[in-house]
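Protein: Ca(2+)/H(+) antiporter
Species: Geobacillus sp.
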Amino acid sequence: MWARQEKRRGNNKIWESEKEDRDCSCRQLAYLLEDTLDLGLKGNTVHRTGRGILFHTYKLGLSPSYFIVNMRLMHIIQRYRTEPLIILCKILICWKGGDITMNKVFAWMVSAGVPLSVIGSFLHWPAVLMFAVYCLTIIALASYMGRATESLAIVAGPRIGGLLNATFGNAVELIISIFALKAGLVEVVLASLTGSVLGNLLLVAGLSFFVGGLKYKRQEFNVYDARHNAGLLTFAILVAFVIPEVFTMNMSSQEKLSLSVGISIIMIVLYLAALYFKLVTHRGVYQQKSDVLEEHEEPEWTRGKAVWILALATVAVAYISERLVHTFETVAESFGWSELFIGIIIVAIVGNAAEHASAVIMAYKNKMNVAVEIAIGSTLQIAMFVAPVLVLVSLLFPEKMPLVFSLPELIAMATSVLLTIVLSNDGDTNWFEGATLLAAYTIMGIGFYLL
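Structure follows.
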C-alpha cells in the first residue's frame, strides 16, 4: 500500500512537468482515474467522478479520445460497471475535441437541413417551423463556408488568404441582407448591421474573454493590432455612422441617399487601404513571435475540394436565405417581435453563429490573437465593407437603403465600441471583463426587445 502511494506521488510530480511523454501521461492518468473512481463510488458521488475525469484530462492537455484507448483504463471501466459511468465513458470515447464534435454536428445539420428546407418550401410547411429549419441550416452552411475559406487561405498564402478571409468572412450575412433588401425590408437590414456590431464586440468578445478566463487567469493578445483596430472601429462607428446622423436631420430622402453613397464609397476605399496596409506594406511589422508560430497550419481540405464546398455552400445559403426572408413577417406576428429585434438579435446571430463559435473555441485553446481578430475583424468588415456594399446594392432595388440608423442603434453601437476599446486596449483579458461585455449585450438586447 505504501509503495503504491509512493508510486502515485511520483506520478504527481511527473504530471506537473512539461508533459514530455504522452503515453506515460496516459498511464499516469489511468492510475489517477482508478483512485478517482474509488473515491466517487465509495461516496456514491458519480458527479464527483465525472469532474475528476474531466479535470485531470484538461490538466494534462489531453483529449479524452487519446487516453480512452489505453488498456489500463479499459480495465478500470470494466471493473466499475455502473450505468452512469458507462454513459460517461461512451461520451468521452465519442468526444474528440470541440472542433471535431462541432463539425460532425454541422454535417448532420446540413444533411438534414438542406433537404428539409427544399421539401418544406414546396409543401408550404408552417412558417415558424421553416424559420427554425432555415436558421439552423444556414448556421451549419456558414461553418462549411468558413472552413473552406480557411483551407483556401492556407493554400493560397498569407496575402491572398487574408484577402479571402476579408471577402468571405461575412458572406452569409451579406447574402441574407441582399435578399432582405430585395423584399423591401430595409429596417431589418439596418438592424442586422447593428446586431452584428453588438454581437461581435459584446457577445463574441464577451464569451471569448469569459470562457478563456475560466481556464486561464490572464490571457494576452497582440496589443498593437488591438490599437490599430481601435482606430478603425472609432472611425467606422463614431465617424461614418454617428456623425452623418447629425447632417441628415434636415435633409430630404434623396439627399440622405446621396450622402450615404458618398460615405459608402469612402469607407470601402479606406477598408481596402487597411487591408493593403495590414497584408502588404506592414505585414509582420507588429507581429509577435507567437503569431508567427500559429501561422504554420495544414489545410483541412485540398484546393479543389475547398472551392467546390465553398461554391455549393454559397448557392445553398443564397437559396435558403431567400426563403428565410419571407418568414420574417409571420414569425414577428407569432412571437410579437419587431423587425428591429429580428434584425438585431436573430439575423445577426444566425449570420455569424459559426464564426462566433470558432472565436470561443480559440479563446478556450488560449489562441486569443485569433479570437480577438474574429470578433473585432468581423466588426470592421461589417461596418466598413458589408454596410457600404449593401447601400450600393440597394440602388438596384425599388427600396433604397440610406446609411441612417435610429438613435437607440447609434447609442448602442457607440457604447459597444467604447467599452470594447477600454477593456481590450491593454492587450490582456480575464473572465470578469468578459462578464462585463456579456452584461452590456444582455441589457441592450432587453432594451431592443421592449422597443
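Remarks: Confidence is low (pLDDT under 50) at residues 14-74, 76-100, 289-294.
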